[in-house]
Design goal:
The complex is a heterodimer. Chain A is built from 15 helices and four strands. By secondary structure, chain A is mainly α. In chain A, a hairpin with a 2-residue loop joins strand 2 (172-173) and strand 3 (176-177).
Chain lengths: 332, 327
C-alpha cells in the first residue's frame, strides 16, 4: 500500500491532475447511472469508440509539439479509406477467399498506408520547405484531399467489404475490442518515440524554440517533415479502422474529429504553443472524454449539449493550464 | 508601376481576371452583368464576416468563432421577438440588439485571448463549439420563418436591376452597397487613424509595439469590439437574405472565409493585410464557386479546386515574402 502511495505522490503534476479529473468523472458517471455505466457492454462499446478519436488525438499531439496544427487529418483518413475501399469492394464483389482474399486485403492496407504517408509528406514538405503557417497549409490540403475523395466517390458512400476484413473492427480479442488494442499499441509506440528516441528529443526542442534548435544544428526541416508523415500514417490507420467498423467509406466522415482531437490534446497537457506533451496525460484525457461522452448519452443529454460541454471543457482546460503555468513561474 | 505589380493584391486581381476570362470563354453567361449581380449577392455574407476575420487576424490571430457569434446573436434576438410576437420592431432596434449580443460574445473571446494570453485559434475553436452548443441545446433548434416586417422589406430592397435576353431580371441587392460602405470605412480607419496603425503594429510584433507605448490590451479590446459589431451585422444580413433564421447553419464553413482573407494577404506576421486584398479574396472564392456551377462542372469538384487555389495562393505569397526579406 505504501509503495502505491509513494508512487502516486512522485508522479508528475500534470499526470496527477489528470488522474484526479478522470477518477472524478468516472465516479460522477457511476453515481448517476450505475446500472447502465458499470456494465461490460458499456465498457466494450466505449472501447470501440475511443479508438478513432484516440488515433487522431495522438497525431494532433505530435503535431502540436512542433507548434503547428494538422487540420487535414480527417481528409487523409477519408481519402486513404476510400482508396482501400475500392480494392476491398472489388474483393467482395468477386467473392474471393483464401490466399487471393488475403492478398487483396494486404494490398488495401498497403495502399491506404502509402496514401497516408504521401499526403503527410506533401503537408510536411510545403510546411518545412516553404515555411508557411501549418494551419493554413493543412487547411488547403484538407480541402484538396477531401475534394479528391469526393471526386473519386462521386459523393456517395462505398460499402460492402469482405467479412474477414470487417472482423477486425467489430470483434474482441481476449475480451478487449481489437481497435482498442491497436490504440494502446499506438500509444505505447508514440510514448517510446517521444521520450526515448533522438527524433522525439529534437521534436520537443524544436517545438519550444525553433531558432535555438537551428543554431544547435538540429535538422529542423527533417523533424517537421517526419512529424507530418507520422500524422498522415496514423490518419490512414484510422481510415482503415473506420472501414472495418462501419463497413463504409465516405469522403466527409468525421468532420468534427479535428476539434475533438484538439480538445483531447489540450486537455491532455499538451502545450498548444509547442514543446511539451505527455502521452500518459493524453491517454487519461482520452478516457475522461470517452466517459463523459458515454455518460452524456446515458443521461440523454444529446449531441448539442455535448458540443456545448466540449467547448466549455476546452476553455476551462486552457484556463487551468494558464494558471498552473503562472504558479510554476511564481515558484521559480 | 513595378511596385504595384509586386503586391499580393495585384496577384490576386490578376488571378481573378485570368479565371474570369478563361471561364467566360467556356460559358459566356459568366461575363454578363446579371451574373455579376448574382456573384455579389452570394458574397455579401462572406464579405461581411471576412471583414471581421481580417480585423482579428491582423491584430491577434485566427478567429474561428465569427459565424457562431453572428448566428447566435441574431437567433437569440429573433427567438425572443417571435416568441413575444413583436413583429413591428424597427430595423435599427433589431440590428442594435444583435450587435450588442455579438459584442458580448466576442469580448468573451477577448478575455481568454488577451487576459489569459491563450492561443487565439484554440480559444476561438472552443468558443465556436460553446456558442453553437449553447444555442442549439438551450435556446432552440427550430427554423424561424416568420420574420419581423422590417426585415422582410429589407430582404427585397434592390438598387439596380438588369434584364437579360430571355427576360429574366437580376437585381443588385441594397446590402451590397452597405458592405461596400463598411469596407471603405474600415479601410479609412486602418490606414488613416492611429488605432488602425496600432492594429498593424501589434499584429506584426507585440513586444516592439509595447515598447513603442501602444496599449496592447486596449487595442485588442477595441478590435474584438469592432469584430463583434461586424459579426452582429453579418448575422442580421444572413437571416435577412435567407428570409429565415436557421440556428447555426453557417458554422462549419469558417475555413472558406479564412482562406479568402489569407489569400488577400491577411496573415498578420508581415502586417500586409489590406481591405482591398480581403475584398479580392472574397470575390475570387465566390467567383470560383459560382463559375464552376455555370460551367456545368459537378459540384463535387469544387472542394478540391478550392483547396488547390488556397495552396497556390499560399505558395505565391510565401515566395513573395522571401523576395522582400532578401531586400
Amino acid at each position: 500500500m505504501k509503495k502505491i502511495v509513494t508512487f502516486v505522490h512522485n508522479l508528475d503534476q500534470d499526470v496527477k491532475r489528470l488522474m484526479g479529473i478522470t477518477i472524478f468523472v468516472f465516479v460522477a458517471m457511476v453515481l448517476m447511472r450505475p446500472k447502465l455505466f458499470l456494465t461490460s457492454n458499456n465498457f466494450t462499446s466505449m472501447g470501440y469508440q475511443i479508438a478513432e478519436i484516440g488515433f487522431f488525438s495522438i497525431a494532433m499531439m505530435m503535431v502540436m509539439v512542433t507548434g503547428g496544427r494538422d487540420l487535414s487529418m480527417v481528409g487523409i483518413s477519408n481519402l486513404s479509406g476510400i482508396l482501400a475501399a475500392f480494392i476491398l469492394h472489388d474483393a467482395f464483389v468477386k467473392e474471393l477467399s483464401g490466399l487471393m482474399l488475403f492478398l487483396y486485403i494486404l494490398m488495401a492496407i498497403i495502399v491506404s498506408i502509402a496514401v497516408g504517408i504521401t499526403c503527410g509528406f506533401m503537408n510536411g514538405t510545403i510546411i518545412s520547405k516553404l515555411g508557411i503557417s501549418p494551419m493554413l497549409v493543412t487547411l488547403g490540403t484538407l480541402n484538396l484531399y477531401t475534394g479528391i475523395g469526393i471526386i473519386l466517390t462521386k459523393a456517395e458512400a462505398i460499402s460492402m467489404f469482405p467479412k474477414e476484413f470487417l472482423y477486425f473492427g467489430n470483434n474482441t480479442l481476449i475480451g478487449v475490442p481489437i481497435p482498442l488494442i491497436l490504440l494502446i499499441a499506438a500509444l505505447i509506440v508514440t510514448a517510446i518515440i517521444l521520450n526515448k528516441t533522438r527524433y522525439g528529443f529534437e521534436l520537443k526542442f524544436i517545438g519550444s524554440n525553433y531558432k535555438a534548435s537551428l543554431f544547435t544544428g538540429m535538422r529542423n526541416k527533417n523533424v517537421l517533415l517526419k512529424t507530418y508523415v507520422y500524422s498522415g500514417l496514423l490518419s490512414a490507420l484510422i481510415g482503415l479502422e473506420v472501414l472495418a467498423r462501419t463497413d463504409s467509406a465516405k469522403a466527409d466522415f468525421g468532420t468534427n474529429y479535428t476539434f475533438q482531437a484538439i480538445l483531447c490534446a489540450v486537455l491532455g497537457a499538451t502545450n498548444p504553443g509547442g514543446g511539451y506533451a505527455k502521452v500518459s496525460c493524453l491517454a487519461l484525457s482520452l478516457i475522461t472524454l470517452q466517459f463523459l461522452s458515454s455518460g452524456f448519452s446515458m443521461l440523454r443529454l444529446g449531441g448539442y449539449f455535448k458540443e456545448f460541454a466540449w467547448g466549455l471543457i476546452l476553455l476551462a482546460a486552457l484556463s487551468v493550464n494558464y494558471f498552473v503555468e503562472q504558479r510554476k513561474l511564481k515558484k521559480s | 508601376m513595378k511596385r504595384i505589380i509586386k503586391t499580393n493584391e495585384f496577384s490576386v486581381a490578376a488571378i481573378i481576371t485570368i479565371i474570369w476570362i478563361l471561364f467566360g470563354l467556356v460559358n459566356p453567361d459568366i461575363l454578363t452583368v446579371a451574373n455579376l449581380y448574382a456573384i455579389t449577392r452570394a458574397s455579401i455574407i462572406s464579405a461581411t464576416f471576412a471583414l471581421s476575420c481580417l480585423l482579428v487576424l491582423l491584430a491577434v490571430g485566427i478567429d474561428m468563432s465569427f459565424y457562431a457569434v453572428g448566428c447566435t446573436s441574431i437567433y437569440v434576438v429573433l427567438n425572443y421577438l417571435v416568441k413575444n410576437k413583436m413583429f413591428d420592431t424597427p430595423l435599427l432596434l433589431i440590428f442594435g440588439a444583435s450587435i450588442v449580443l455579438a459584442i458580448i460574445l466576442q469580448l468573451i473571446n477577448w478575455f481568454f485571448i488577451d487576459r489569459l494570453s491563450l492561443q487565439p485559434f484554440i480559444v476561438t475553436i472552443g468558443s465556436q463549439s460553446l456558442y453553437k452548443g449553447f444555442l442549439l441545446a438551450f435556446i432552440g433548434t427550430t427554423y424561424i420563418t416568420t420574420l419581423p416586417t422590417s426585415m422582410k422589406s429589407l430582404a427585397t430592397k434592390y438598387i439596380a436591376s438588369t434584364t437579360n435576353s430571355s427576360g429574366i431580371t437580376s437585381n443588385l441587392h441594397f446590402l451590397v452597397f452597405i458592405v461596400i460602405i463598411m469596407y471603405v470605412l474600415m479601410h479609412l480607419m486602418l490606414s488613416y487613424t492611429r488605432f488602425g496603425r496600432n492594429i498593424y503594429a501589434i499584429g506584426a510584433d507585440v513586444i516592439a509595439a509595447k515598447r513603442a507605448g501602444i496599449n496592447i490590451s486596449k487595442t485588442r479590446f477595441f478590435v474584438f469590439l469592432l469584430a463583434g459589431i461586424i459579426c452582429g451585422i453579418g448575422g442580421m444580413f444572413q437571416v435577412t437574405l435567407n428570409r429565415a433564421a436557421v440556428p447555426a447553419d453557417l458554422v462549419g464553413q469558417e475555413l472558406m472565409v479564412i482562406a479568402a482573407v489569407v489569400l488577400g494577404g491577411g496573415m498578420g506576421k508581415q502586417a500586409r493585410g489590406s481591405i482591398l486584398g480581403t475584398a479580392l479574396g472574397v470575390i475570387l472564392l465566390s467567383l470560383i464557386s459560382n463559375s464552376l456551377i455555370l460551367m456545368k462542372i459537378p459540384s463535387y469538384y469544387q472542394q478540391a479546386f478550392t483547396g488547390i487555389i488556397i495552396l497556390i495562393g499560399l505558395v505565391i505569397q510565401s515566395s513573395k515574402g522571401k523576395e522582400q526579406a532578401v531586400d
